Amino acid sequence: MHCHMRRIHETRKWAADEVDLAGINLNLLVALDALLKEAHVTRAAARVGLTQSAMSHALGQLRELLDDALLIRGRGGMVLTPRAEQLAAPLRRGLVELQRALRNEPAFEPATASRRFTVATRDYFGSALLPSALELLGREAPGVDLSVQHVESTTYPTLLESGEVDLVVVTPPVESGPGLRQQKLFTEDFVCVVRKGHPLVRKTLDLDTYLKLSHVLISPRGDGVGAVDRVLVQRGLPPRRIALRVPYFLIAPLVVTRSDHVLTAPRRLIAAFSGAYPLQVFPPPLPVPSFDMIQVWHERFDGDPAHQWLRGLVARAVGVMHPGSRNTRSSRRVRRTPGS
């Protein structure tokens, strides 16, 4: 009798496992993906085009199916259970792969394609990339859209792996993550800029004048020192006065046009402003190290024709004629110098 009951229990457990794999409504997985992404029933419903009551019903089914609460109330709202956290990334990857399989697009034709790519970067590179990229899109792929997001260094490896972000454009070193690949786009150097008519700066900018001026520092992380400050320490020179620290690249040149401050910033950033605003551009009066800009993607999309085309578009937009790639785990270490 005991052995008979054990066989029944094992059979039921096996059958339940089979239901987990084969008997799940695909719409429930789409709903689960939205719930794990938003951690909010109403927002998840809006994300996939369901009513709130329909999403609540789907959550109930998922809880019963997976034998887990999935979402529970926390101090700031709903939070994911450990089981839900475990499911989030694999589920997203699976749905992306399924979507790609069902699209059945072995070839990518830019001229007739209709899709959207998501690129994560900072505003500086957006200013250097987007005008040329949009010009290329208009000529070669009028049906392709771009969505640009602010890059978060702690999350982009996961977003690249899941396919939520197609490409990340950053300065090295790349955040650790399995399967990430990278390509160097260009090496950037620095220039100094003040407003035209500056009372202390005429035709040249010497070191003594430079150190007397008030400085604007672009600091994406909001703290720390810039490349200029490290050079001053190395050379035993007095520190400069940082009168303004900003986290955004595109604000800094505008501040300089209305003040007597000096800004040391990437050359491509200043080139985007110098033609339209009254600015004087000078080489730095001391050697400031250059830095590299790279594009990063996940190896899952290495051979995907659409992703290959996107990477080529970005490379061409910044003047790279022969794009290549390498695994980030074997790449050389490069300088991290976005602040100045």
Plain-language structure description:
This protein is an alpha/beta fold and 340 residues long. The chain contains twelve helices and 13 strands. The chain has helices at 2-22, 26-38, 41-48, 52-66, 82-103, 123-140, 156-162, 207-212, 227-234, 252-257, 267-274, 305-317; strands at residues 71-74, 77-80, 115-121, 144-150, 167-170, 180-188, 190-195, 214-218, 241-246, 262-266, 279-282, 291-298, 326-327. Helix 6 (123-140) links the parallel strand 3 and strand 4 (144-150). It starts with a helix and ends in a 13-residue tail after the last strand. The model is unreliable at 1-19 and 321-338 (pLDDT under 50). This is LysR family transcriptional regulator. Residues 24-81 form the HTH lysR-type domain. InterPro entries: LysR-type_TF, LysR_HTH_N, LysR_subst-bd, WH-like_DNA-bd_sf, WH_DNA-bd_sf, YidZ_PBP2. Belongs to the LysR transcriptional regulatory family.
Can you tag this structure with a few keywords?
340 residues; alpha/beta; 5-stranded mixed β-sheet; 12 helices; 13 strands; disordered N terminus; disordered C terminus
Brief digest:
Keywords: DNA-binding, Transcription, Transcription regulation. With about 350 residues, this protein is an alpha/beta fold.
As laid out across the biggest beta sheet, the strand order is 4-3-5-12-6-13
Helix content: 40-55%
Low confidence ranges: 1-19, 321-338
Shape: elongated
The radius of gyration computed from the alpha-carbon positions, rounded to a whole number of angstroms, is 26 Å
Mind sketching the topology for me?
Blueprint: H1 2-22, H2 26-38, H3 41-48, H4 52-66, E1 71-74, E2 77-80, H5 82-103, E3 115-121, H6 123-140, E4 144-150, H7 156-162, E5 167-170, E6 180-188, E7 190-195, H8 207-212, E8 214-218, H9 227-234, E9 241-246, H10 252-257, E10 262-266, H11 267-274, E11 279-282, E12 291-298, H12 305-317, E13 326-327
Parallel strand pairs: 3-4, 3-5, 8-9, 8-10
Antiparallel strand pairs: 1-2, 5-12, 6-12, 6-13, 7-10, 7-11
Helix pairs in contact: 2-3, 2-4, 2-5, 3-4, 6-12
